[in-house]
Amino acid sequence: MEEQAKRSPGGKLALWALYAFCGYCVWVIVRYWWVVGKIHSVPGASGGG
Description:
Elements: H1 9-38
């Protein structure tokens, strides 16, 4: 149980690519919420009549 798993350089690269992809996805979602949250709807722009 104490022995660490040995990864090949390709495995490490794949793991870092996965981490980078997940981090990028989180960044995109947070940025989307931040941009959309700053948009305030203009009164009368809903096209209600």
